[in-house]
Write a structure and sequence with these properties.
Radius of gyration: 15 Å
CATH class: Alpha Beta
Largest sheet: 5 strands, mixed
Strand order of the largest sheet: 3-2-1-4-5
CATH architecture: 2-Layer Sandwich
Strand content: 15-25%
Number of strands: 5
Structural class: alpha+beta
Helix content: 25-40%
Shape: globular
Order of helices and strands: HHHEEEEHHEH
Distance between the termini: 18 Å
Number of domains: 1
Oligomer: single chain
Amino acid sequence: MTEGASFLDWLLGNTEDWSVERFLGFMKWAFEHSDHTSGAALGLKGYHENIENFKAVYVFETEDHLVQATACFNDGSMVVGTGGATKWDLKISFKDVLALWKFIFSGGNDIVDSMLANDVQVYGNLNYLYKFGFMAKDLVFQRLGLKRIFV
């Protein structure tokens, strides 16, 4: 850990270098530990409520299909898998992982710009996109208190 870096900065490292599976795994951990002492200490208390009574399958993949991950939410549980599920509610295809993170963690015109530049393509119900974006931003910016994740 470098001098002056917070524990969370160290934990997250260079988020733009994170694999999709790593972030989804971290999200899963946050949901599972949100009501435990370890999660409460990080500000995660109540985070699990985001997936109660929620069912959806998300597929994340690069345009060349070399990177594929699936997140399945089913009434309070989250399962992360490698590979793309054949049945999904939302599929996000992205140029590279950095393009995905910029898309998910940005707001306003940046989202539209990503789509217009063909960095990201979204298939399915956009409400699921907004739900995932909310959960990701809530975790990173609100609960963990990071101000920004890209340098």
